[in-house]
Amino acid sequence: MGQLFHSVLLIEEKCRGCTRCIKNCPTEAIRVRAGKARINAERCTDCGECIRTCDNYAKTAITDPLSRLKDYEYAIALPAPALYSQFGPDVDPATVLAALIDMGFDDVFEVAYGADISTFLTVEYLRRNKRKGPMISAACPAVVRLIQVRFPALIDSLIPVDSPMACSGKLAKEAKSRELGICEGKIGAFFITPCPAKVTWVREANNLGSFAVDGAISISDVYGEVAKRLPEVIPPYPKPKASSAGAGWGRTGGERIAAGIGKSLVVDGIHNVIDVLEQLEMGKLSDIRFVEAQACTGGCVGGALTVLNPFIGRMNLEALVARLETPPNLFEELDIDLNLLRRFDEFAIKPQIVAVPAFRLDQDVSRAISKAEMIEKVVNELPGLDCGSCGSPHCRALAEDIVQGLAVDTDCVFKLREEIEILAEQLFEMAKKSPPALKDNDAFSKPWE
Ligand code: SF4
Ligand code: SF4
């Protein structure tokens, strides 16, 4: 596998090796070695959990700077619905869009409108797909990556339609290219992102070929600039065209409400998502048709790159959703506008989702089995306290690291103490021994009497 891009990074000089982050990482991707956290690139999902956890601000997310707008002849902002939630319960989306243009974007295209299209595609996919059992939304890239890394058996259960971000990028560029008569390559589409996982998705998709979204700028980077312009922007404002259902995608449950699919399960918070995915992997919950799973608590409003408390963000978005409207014939309008049914395949998710076998013990099956047996043996010799002092998240992870040659048993402070005690006893016994020349020893004195 080539070099993986990750938005989430360690700022080494700020890391104090406290081991706090290793316990919360959902894919056990972090170890502390030589006093510093280390992230395993294959296992990391860019969920941002460690950014939230680190009190020393040693974890950060790489995003695109606003200066990247200059790389394009025409720059379009694609604001996530979660952006609206950052500016209070009474925010007018039109003024947020106007503020983005005032900041330097040439145009805006609401990702909430892209969400309306994703909703349509999801409903259509489920209608066409006769496969039994739960189908999982692929809208949250941290969840998709988690499935690739930890639950590859569930990849076929992901709904392969484009995310609101990707739908928005495609439609925005296509429309502008037609209107302005310039090629799409000269138009830059920038997602205003609530989370690092979406930054990674955009970067990886572009590394694998051209993608409709060219960059991802964090909500926290535009927040101050938008906030100070909101009282000043003057009409005419850009006209928002997303429905209330599309805007609602920014919080947990929004997808399910928008799609109106019966027998749905909604789960948020990465550790809760893992619990549900474990059950799905075991074949449980088989009577559910649709699973909306979001890595962040509260959904995108709780992303690691937002500014506001997720619960307040959610309340604000709920207030906006209540004020907006969803026309009863929304899907029909989309169908007429975009002829989406004809373009269904064009809106299939890209890049292709494949398993990332980051938890595989060995490529060779028999070696993997013997390593698994060795791990059981090693884990039984460890104290089972899961204290994390060794720099691995728990005793089993240390056992795995030992068997993989990435750690030694004395990295465990209790094993180290046992070894020191044995050594101390040996030293003590040795210290009690004196050279024969200095002590009375009957056995040796006899011949020289
Ligand atoms: S939480 Fe992790 S990254 Fe932050 S200081 Fe502790 S070990 Fe370092
Ligand atoms: S971003 Fe998430 S998966 Fe990656 S190291 Fe941090 S907590 Fe672990």
Structural class of the helices, strands and pairings?
A: alpha/beta
Number of helices: 18
Strand content: 5-15%
Question: How would you write the strand order of the largest sheet?
Answer: 6-5-8-9
The string of secondary-structure elements, in order, is EHEEHEEHHEHEHHEHEHHHEHEHHHHHH
Major sheet description = 4 strands, parallel
Tally of structural domains:
3
- Give the overall pLDDT as a whole number: 91
Can you tell me about this structure?
With 449 residues, the protein is of the alpha/beta class. It has 3 domains: 8-61, Alpha-Beta Plaits, CATH 3.30.70; 66-347, no CATH class; 365-432, 3-methyladenine DNA Glycosylase II, Chain A, domain 3, CATH 1.10.15. It is 42% helix and 10% strand. It contains 18 helices and 11 strands. It has helices at 20-24, 49-53, 81-84, 93-103, 111-128, 141-150, 164-180, 196-208, 219-229, 244-247, 254-259, 270-281, 310-323, 330-338, 365-381, 395-403, 413-432, 442-445, and strands spanning 8-10, 30-33, 36-39, 59-61, 74-79, 107-108, 135-136, 187-193, 215-218, 264-268, 290-294. Strands 6-5-8-9 form a 4-stranded parallel beta sheet. A 3-stranded parallel beta sheet has the order 7-11-10, with helices on one face. The protein has a two-stranded antiparallel sheet with strand order 1-4. Helix 4 packs across helix 9. The model has no long low-confidence stretch (mean pLDDT 91). Bound molecules: iron/sulfur cluster (2 copies). The site of one iron/sulfur cluster has 15 residues, from helix 1.
